[in-house]
Amino acid sequence: MRTRALGRSGLQVSVVGIGCNAFGTRIDEDRTKEVVHAALDAGVTFFDTADTYGRGASEVLLGRALGARRGDVVLATKAGMDMGGMNGPDWGARASRRYLRRALEASLNRLGTDYVDLYQLHTPDRVTPIEETLSVMDDFVREGKVRYVGCSNFTAWELVDADWTARTSHLTPFVSAQNEYSLYNRSAEAELVPACEALGIGLLPYFPLAYGLLTGKYSRGEEAPEGTRLAESSQAARLEGADWDQIEALESYARERGRTMLDVAIGGLAAQPAVASVIAGATRAEQVHANVEAAQWEPTAEDLAALDAIRPTARWSYTTFAPRR
Predict the structure, then answer these.
(1) Structural domain contains residue 311
(2) Element housing 302 (H / E)
């Protein structure tokens, strides 16, 4: 497994990371251990969770699964989304000095560790000034409880503003931005990717398989296979509203190169500017192995040019003020 620097930092992450949002919700402790151990055996070193995943359950199960190998991995978590009062009243200011201090201590306790490698603000807080947020995150770094800091679901202007504030105030800047980005939803390329490149911030795409649309499991005009994610009633609209012209263009692209759809979705995304690690969720060991294998494909300049020509037929907007994960 290849590794890369996360932005302009000394933190090295595996090209494929494990998104842990299914731990404690879609899979139990035994299955979580299977996924984590399969990832470790395959050379994956980057594990990304959040306090809100399973209301803390993901952090607990991830910490237990890593056990004595915690020091061998890059452990990332996030805070800033609604925890339903688990960290006390927040009054909507979940990036405040008071709240983040409570959130970090709770995460460390659940993870069973005394530090995290990457601590990320899960979503912008439009109540708390960014100066206050960066100041307390800088305190965490100085105290040794956090090694690096990042953000998630920020727009490009918010990312630039946070970087300028950190550097002019001599505070620890964000080294990463975690946003939805796939070869199906390329809206991040309009402004966020150029901002990351200019600032030296590593991009961590989530939903790289576009809820499963880029796995090759689904076809135009056909029902989702039983047991797949898009077979769930809550996900039916994603299948019905899918841009099949784009999906089928990507399938043709893969066939022409003797590659699978998964190769293109993960390997092609990993080759895009600013991308440090592609975060892919997994509920089975086989999925981990498939994602790792897909990342082995490194497209040529010609491959990338052809891939760049495949664009969605509908225009996307990523300036959503209420991101959902």
Answers:
(1) no
(2) helix 301-308
Q: Does some domain include residue 313? A: no
Q: Where are the beta strands (DSSP E) in the chain?
A: 3-5, 12-14, 16-19, 46-48, 74-79, 116-121, 146-152, 174-180, 202-206, 278-281
Residue 252 maps to a domain: no
Residues in contact with 31: Cβ distance below 8 Å, sequence separation at least 6, in sequence order: 283, 284
For the chain, what is the mean pLDDT? 94
Active-site residues, by number, are 53
Q: Cα(183)–Cα(171) distance, rounded to whole angstroms?
A: 34
Say whether pLDDT at 316 is over 60. no
Enclosing domain of residue 111: 3-217+263-300
Residues 294-303: what's their mean pLDDT?
97
**Could you give the CA distance from residue 118 to residue 222 in angstroms, rounded to a whole number?**
41
Give bridge partners of residue 204 from the DSSP assignment: 178
Which has more pLDDT, 323 or 142?
142
Number of domains in the chain: 1
What's the pLDDT score for residue 321?
40
- Say whether 47 sits in a helix, a strand or coil: strand
CATH code for the domain in which residue 80 is found: 3.20.20.100
State the average pLDDT over residues 30-58.
98
What was the pLDDT predicted at 313? 59
As a whole number of angstroms, the distance between CA 110 and CA 206 comes to: 23
Global model pTM greater than 0.90: yes
What's the pLDDT at 325?
Answer: 57
Considering the domain boundaries, does residue 86 fall inside one?
A: yes
